[in-house]
Each structure stands twice: as C-alpha cells, then as structure tokens.
Please model this.
Amino acid sequence: MAAVKAIKSKDKHIQQLAAIVGGGRSILYQKEDLLAYDCDGFTIHKHLPKAVVFPKDTQEVAALVKYCHEHDLPFLARGAGTGLSGGAIPLNEEVIISMVRMKRLLSVDMENRRAVVEPGFVNLKLTNSISDKGYYYAPDPSSQYCCTIGGNVAENAGGAHCLKYGVTTNHILGLEVVMPNGDIIEIGKDGVADEPGYDLLGLITGSEGTLGIVTKIVVRILKNPEAKQTVLAYFDKVSDGSQAVSDIISSGIVPAALEMMDKTAIEGVEAAAFPVGHPKDIDAVLLIEVDGISAGIDEQIDEILKVCRNRNVREVKVAQDEAERGRWWANRKTGFGAMGAISPDYLVQDGVIPRSKLPVVLDRINQISNESGLRIANIFHAGDGNLHPLVLFDARVPGEIEKALEAGSACLKVCADVGGTITGEHGVGIEKREEMRFVFTEEEIAAQTDVREVFNPKNLLNAGKLFPSPGRCVEVKKEMKASVTS
Amino acid sequence: MVTAELLTELKAVLPEVKITTEENQVTLFPHTEEQIAEIVKYCQEQKKTICIIGGGTKSKVGTSNERVDINLSLSEYTGIVEHTVGDMTVTVKAGTRYEELQEYLAQHKQKVALDPSWPRDATIGGVIAANDSGPKRLGYGTARDSVIGLRTVYPNGKVIRSGGRVVKNVAGYDMNKLFIGSMGTLGVLSEITLKLRPLQKCESLILLSFSNGNLDEVRRFAVELLDSMMEPVALELLNPAMAEKLVEQNAYTLAISLEDVETSVTYQEEFIQKLRPKNAELTILRKDQAASFWQRLYTAAPSGCDPDTSNENNAGTVALMKIGVVNLSVLEIARECQLLSDQYSVKAEAHGGLGTGICQVILHGASEDVAQSISRLRVFAAELGGYGIVQYLPESLNGKVDVWGERPSYFRLLEGIKAKMDPSRIMNPKRFIGGI
Model:
C-alpha cells in the first residue's frame, strides 16, 4: 500500500476529511491545486472551494457528507465539471466531493435492458461498452465523450437524439443517493418500475445536486435501431428552414434528431476542426436523422426530401455511409467550441420555445444582436424547440461581458414570453437563477424550495443554486457583476 | 358537522357550484379552476377533508375506511384548453374523459401515447394522478414521459404551475413528477399539458399461443425478440386464464403489438413469423380486430364504477393487484399465479410486460383465499426484488389487507413532502402508501 501522504494543513476539518478518504492522496486543499476547481463549464463566475475530496465508494461519500452535515460545512458534488450553468461552482467555499474515482460500470443485464454505473462513469463509455452486443445508452449530450452519468442525472441532461428518445430522466430506472444528512437511500432498486410512493426518482433527476448526492445509477439501455439515415438540407432563408422543421413534425414522422444551425454558426463550424464544406452563403442548415425498422425508413426519407423541396431547399443530400454521417455529426456536436474560431469568447444560452414559434423567435434574437452590437450564432435542437443562442464577445473589451450576459438574458426572456422556458438541458445553476422569475411566480418558486427543505433542511448541499434569492434580486445582480469583472 | 348544516354552509359560501347529496355524502361539481380553488380554500380554512373523484374507475384504489367530508368531482370540469397541432402538445382539463380526448386528437392524426385501463370512463386527471399505464408502455413510456406541464390547486387553495408547454424543460425541479401517481394526496390536478405522438399509420397484433404450457420456451422466444432490432410497442404475456378470458384460448399467450408505417409493420410480422417456435400457434389481427383485443384487455380488470364487478356475490369476490418486478421476472409471476390457483382455489387472471416488468393480476375466489393470495404474491414479488400493491379490494376485505404493502426505507421523505404540502391532511387522507 502506498504511503499515506502527510497533510500540511493545520485546518482541523481538512485533516478529518482527509482521514475519511484515506489520507492526503485523495484530497486537495492548497490554493494552487484548488484553482482548477473554481468553476465548471460556466467560466465567467469563479470561486475557490475549501477542499476537493475524492471518495472511492458510497460509504466514503456518506461519511464525508455526515461530517459536513455535523460541522455545518457547505459541500457539493462534482463530476467532470462540464456543466454549462455553474451548478458545480463553490459559491460558498464548499467542500467539493468529486465523483471521478467512482467510475465503474458495475453490471450490464442485456436481457432486462439495464446497466448499473457509478456516477463518475463517462456517458459515452457506456455505449462503447455495450455496442458490440448491439446496445446503447440513449442520452447523448454533446460533451458525452467526457461528461459523467452522475452529472447527467443532476442536470437531467439532454442531447441531439432526445427528440425521439427522451432526456436523461426518461432513462433512469433506479438511484442510490446519499442524503444531505449522510443517510443512504435506494430508489427503484434493481430498476423495477413504478415503485409505490411519490416519484423521488423523477424529482431528484434534474435537481442540480441540491437534494442529494447520487452514488449509483440504474439506467435503461436500448437496442440499436436496425437502420439509420441522415439528411443535410441547405436553405437560403431561415424561415424556409424553420417551416420545414414544422412540416416534418406535422407529417407524422418522429425523427431521431432534427438539428438546425444559422449562418453565423455555420461560419464558426466551418472555421473550426471539423468542417464539412457547408456553403458559406446559406442562411440555415438542417441535420435530420431518422432511425428504426429498415423497411420503413425509405418512406420517411422520401417524405422529408419532399417537405424540404416544398420549402425551397437549395440542396438536400442523404449521407452515403457511416463515415459521412460521422463527419456531419462531429461538425454539429463540436458547434459550441467551434465559436472559439470566430470569437475570443462566447456565452451559450439554452431557451426552449414551442416549435411553431421558431421564425418569430429567430427574428427577435436577431434584433437583440443588432441592439447589443454582439453577434449571436444559433445552434439548436429544432425538433424539440431547444435553442442555443451563442452570444459572441470579447472579454478584453471593457463592458462586453455585461453586454453578453444581458443579451443572453434577453434571449431567454423572448423564449419565456412566447410560452417557452429558460433552460431545456443545461440547467439553471448560477447563471439563470434570476431568469427563473421569467417563468415562475414567487409562490411557484417557494413550492420548489419547500421540497428542497424536506431533503436538504440545512441547505448545506449546493446552496445558492437554481433559485433566485427572495427579494434580493438587485444585490444578487450586483454581486454577479462584481464577481464577473473581478 | 351534520350533512344538512354543511350543505347549507357550502351553498352560502359557494353559490355558483353545483352540489349533490347522496347517502349523507356531499359532492361538489366545480366547472372552473377558480371554483376548484375556492372549494379547496374553504376546506382548508374549515379543516374539511376532500376526496377527489374523476370517472370513479379508481375509487377502490388505495381506499381506506376514512370518511371524508366532501367529494370533489371533476366530472363536469372538462374540455380541451389548447391544442397546438404543429407543436404536438395539448392542454386539457382534468375531468375530460380519456377516450374523448383521444377521439378529438385522432381527428388531427395525433394521440396521447398512454393506454390506461377503462379509457371510456377514466378521466385524464385520474390516469395521471394514479400513473396508470398499459402494455404499450414498452414502446411509448408512461405518464412520466408524456406529461410536460400541470396546473395544480394546492391544499392551500393556490394554483401552482409546474413544467410548461414545451417538450424539453429543466427550469427548476421537475415538480410534475411529484404529482404523477400521487393519488391526489398533494393537490387537485386542474390542467394537464401532454406531449403527443403521431397516430400510427398501421397497427397489428400478433398472438402467439404456447399450448404446451412451456414457459421456458416463451422466455427463449421473448429474449430473442427483445434482442432483435424489431420494435414491438407491447410484448405482453397473458397467463392461460387471462388468454381464455380475452381470446378464448386456454394457454400462455404473447400479445405483440406493432405500430408503424405499413411496410415496417409487415416486415416485422414476417420477422416474427420466422422466429415462431414450432409448437406455438400464431394469429395476426389487424386494425379493428387488434383494437378490439386491447379494448377487452383494458376493461378486464374490475373498475370502481362498474356495478358488475363491485357487487360481491355467491361466486366469491374479486381483487386486483399491480405487481412490479424486473422485466423477465414477469414469467415467474405468471408461473406463481398458476400455483396459486391450485393452492388456494382462486382464479388468477394475469398479464405482464416482458419488456416492462409491470403485471396486472385479477384474483377471483372466496374472500379468505383472495386475501391469502394477495399476501403470497406480495411476498413472492418482494423475493424477486419487486413489489405488489392492491388496486381493487372488495368491501369484505376492506381494512383487512394492506393495499400498499410495506413502507420503503425512505418513507421519511414521502411523509415529509406530504407534511410540507398538506399539513392539515385534507387531500385524499390516508389514500396512499403508509397512510399518507
């Protein structure tokens, strides 16, 4: 056994926490080590944690939580840190409980279509582990090559293919959870459905790490579809592209994915690592995928081609092989990062609108771009109305961060005003706390914090996330600006 | 307060609301959400208990001997609030009958992708509050997967929205999930927003009968089908008694439902025909014939509002259980149901999804035997890692059988949620697990 690394800190809590996880190799507490944990994928807001601990199993997580609970130490759980709304940022100098050592695939049961994973297990690894038998795990966030399933559960992560297959919550059958007081509970044991009682499985999924720490996950796995076809369609006018989206959905087809990018987004992806030769002068590209029984696919593809032609498509093509399909998807899935090729900084937003409102919302976002003087690229899961406006800015220019935040918030207001919502898959986190008021009344927010109180009465677990502070709206905005500019 | 006094007071406080009294029980029939809220607010102030009623099909689900002060019937609170065809979402008032909603949506070639029991009588509010589902949940999921937004009248009389009208939404906690399956113990569902699916272009039902009674053969076939790339929307095992009731064939029978474009359905039919074990008999039903089979299955179980099943007679009594196990353990439940009939002289009609793990068991027999069978099945399900709950209990066993079974280890949280949301416990008191 490796020698126990000595703890250089005199802090009693650091020493105790280190003892729980077996010594100095499983804890970080010095400033230079903590810097890497001062934010997640939402990078314009930074705070240092008190310490980062790396438990190896549920028992250690429970002991850490119990210690924090008894000593009133704020704490939170972190996976790969890919979250885009700041859910894993230690606002209150939290002890970060990192789940990355708990990364085993515990079991796979093909016959009953379930698998059990630890929370630190990487999303794509699950599909890779079962693909030789023809199975896969459906939720596919763009960060799936590195994000963890535990984090996916916390955020109720989506992905391009959730149009047909649903988001994370539709694929979670059971959870083992360490409650904020250190108790361990099991919900949906063995993945048995409809366990009697209130649906805690559904409530905890998407609670952004504020109701408990997930330590084991039973997920549903699916059989690969027999056939898959992917179509790329170029439109000279955004309005034609969005009409085509509506027409495809209305024709009775449920595509596996239906993605759209606008002109600015196309400029970004073509300048980045995975260009596929989209024409530079078009206004919109649609990426459409249908899957299912081979015998039924051609019929659906014909229908989609017909719809696109009726909507004045400039060019439409079907992927000739898996390699071509792969290139198209890589181009799309790296779309956010690709903005780095055309702008020093960018802010991702995540509004959702009723599909039929797409043309009007795009016009309004265009106006916001003109008014703010910042370019806004649009990448979206058009089939389910989930927009990702990417506000492009330069943090070195004084005042641009604030302008970008305001433009992002204005985009969410537009989504809320047409009957939509402020986040479809990235979560509220820190970023959209105030925007919660665009969609919920104070009473409706209180109804949610009431539930949190049942689970997390001391509010030591991931405090300050998800909900606006009652009546402190002005101060919070000031604080947000202060921490952004510092 | 005696009924007459309560009636006088209600008439004074709620002059607009229709009120009836029958056998000393007051029932209110609100027409608007405001009226529901007024009623609940009144009950909260006066500490009157409420029983929420939709179509009454589940009036025997989770019943207790608790007498409530007021029945709140949503049967006159009906209609579509908004249907955006292009968005494939619908918002509907809770008292709307499930079948009426589906008939309306069918005009637009759309549907709610749920197949609950008693679709003609059940209301959408009741289906959601009880989280009812049918065999096609294999392909389409359950209420958890379809409900995207709710308006709920809280026990304090305030209307709280959860979710929204978009198909993807992670703003705040997923509060919809709390109400789905909560048996009306947390509030009155008022408006329900659902995501829709296109109506299938073609539907087919394959019945595969295993007359040699060999469940291992059923298992081999099912595993092979599930491991193929076919996409059945239901793969339901009927035990011989259930098959007898539905298709007059006393043998283990698989009901395989296919819904897609016609070329795909035909292709899958051919695939399954090739996969058919030699000893199994295969029948294909299309369109109306398939629909009629499902209709028979959806109405096979006793309903709280059907006088034929609610009256006990000399032939004995009837009870209904829902059992949840790991998917393929449904085969074990089916086997156990056969053993039961020998041991307790009950008739157990059972069906369960081999891709879902959810079974429905109808038990007929003398009330003592039925009670024994319930506890035996519950223990058996628990040994398989599952659970069994009673969804319909005859009068003679009321109070003698625990309908929800043991409390889960995390019961504290369920109790905490109830205490937080309904501290005076006026909503459907003691209707849910552990006396919540």
